[in-house]
Amino acid sequence: MDVIHALGFGAKSVVGAELNPATYSLARNDYADYMGHVLDNKKVTLVNSEGRSALRSLNHKVDIVFLNAIDTFAALSAGAYVLSENYLYTVESMQEMLSHLNTNGLIAFSRWNTNPPRESLRLSSLFCETLRRSGCQTVDKQIFIVAQPCGEGGRLFSKTTDFGWAVSLFKKNPFTKEEVQMLAHQAGIHGLRVLFFPKVYGQEEQAKMEADYAQANQADPDFGENSGCFNRLIAAYSQGEQQKFFASYPFEVTPTTDDSPFFFEYPLKNKFGLPDLFELKRTSAGMAICVVIVESIVFSLLAIFWPLWKYQKGGIKVRFSPQFSVYFSAVGIGFMLIEIGLVQKFVLFLGSPLYALSIVLASLLLSAGLGSAVLSATNWSWRKTVAVFGSSLVFLLLVLVFGLNTLFYSLLYLDLPVKMAIAFSVIFPVGFLMGTFFPSGLEAIKKNNPDYVPWAWGINGCTSVFGSIAAIALAMSKGFTFSLLIGVMAYLVACLSVYAIPKKLDS
């Protein structure tokens, strides 16, 4: 539909990016006749690629970057995106789009309009933050928001929640008066509401125009509230007071970044300004994480710790069991924080969570297994293994934590097979080193404290489960970089705990 509309309005050329290979194949082949072979038009180029990768591959600038409700509402209604990252809705993505626009080009997003606004308001905060970082001072002249009155989109969830459509237009340079008049005229023809007018008129003329428009639409009960939200946000950015707005707004609409790209997580905040974890909505990630944590605690106690306590109670009473427990806990948590952090980081580079999960997990598990196998042939002591491999691992992880983004942004244009090979090469040495920690500790304990071995497995298993949950929670609150750094600290703790154990017990 996007291609048809573009051609219908006279576009000289159209580049479409479709991430899903099944959808791409259906459109290009199976349903080509049904669609009138519109994608075979000489003006149309359709690529099977992630949006930012496709954009980075362009060798020319464009007039419009258009994202038309690319996330299905069926999945969103089930809460499918709140625990999933999306790199198209970040400040860095907005910067990428702006850099590929012609002088008078614009970015157009079509998203759901809710009351009070969430998604469309967060898009505006993304654009405002992007301009702020570039030093631009005309943010209030480069945004135009138009929407259906809430309710015309249908009652999709309940009798009390109405949704309509909103289109956010973000221009590379300020709108002209003629453009604003034309857009407002078209909005009126189609029965839409202008929620934000670019401030391109004189102060008195602008105030009169907006007042007249508001008076004409006062019969729409949601117009004033929705329009006011956008005006307050953009005014706050113009005055450098955006943090005050975010603190006072009932939903979390701060700009998302590549380091924490959870655009669809906009929880209702409690009276302390924190996400309301008990807000029982299907799209609440906080509630989802809380449920998973409770489930993990219950099943860990029933399936692991209760059997160990009943049948292997003596194992936890061996000398230096606290130090052993710290070591295996840190290894379990650290491995999962690094693993999931890398998966999340590689989503942008590889263009799909499916590719990232497959490549990162395969690379880590294969390399960790090889690391364990090589370790068995060295006959090194536990302490020596941790000293040599641990220091190398920490150094390598720190290089990755602070260097991955630079690598990704410079190589994002490459074809998928090449990026997969690069991902494997980057991950392999990390997995190899991480694979030496658990077996080296287990082998040392088997020789000197065999009763503790079941506890080592149990503690490591439980902390691995909690580490996977912690990785998502930390990424959503502090970002992937912070999550990876906590993983690095966990391995440091594991290394230091070995030195709290006498040498005769570590070999």
Q: Which terms would index this structure?
A:
507 residues, alpha/beta, Growth Hormone, Chain: A, 3 domains, five-stranded mixed β-sheet, two-stranded parallel sheet, 57% helix, elongated
Could you explain how this protein is built, in words?
This protein has 507 residues and is an alpha/beta fold. The chain has three domains: 1-48, no CATH class; 51-248, no CATH class; 285-505, Growth Hormone, Chain: A (Up-down Bundle), CATH 1.20.1250. The protein is 57% helix and 9% strand. It has a five-stranded mixed beta sheet, sandwiched between helices. A two-stranded parallel ribbon has the order 1-2. α12 crosses α13 (353-376) and α12 packs antiparallel against α15 (416-434). It is elongated. It starts with a helix and ends in a 9-residue tail after the last helix.
Brief overview, please?
The protein is an alpha/beta fold and 507 residues long. Helix content is 57%, strand content 9%.
Q: How are the elements arranged and paired?
A:
Layout: H1 2-8, E1 14-17, H2 21-30, E2 44-47, H3 51-57, E3 62-68, H4 73-77, H5 91-99, E4 101-113, H6 119-134, E5 143-147, E6 164-171, H7 177-189, E7 193-196, H8 203-216, H9 223-238, H10 242-248, H11 285-311, H12 321-350, H13 353-376, H14 382-411, H15 416-434, H16 437-448, H17 453-477, H18 480-498
Parallel strand pairs: 1-2, 3-4
Antiparallel strand pairs: 4-6, 5-6, 5-7
Helix pairs in contact: 5-6, 6-9, 9-10, 11-17, 12-13, 12-14, 12-15, 12-17, 12-18, 13-15, 14-15, 14-16, 14-18, 17-18
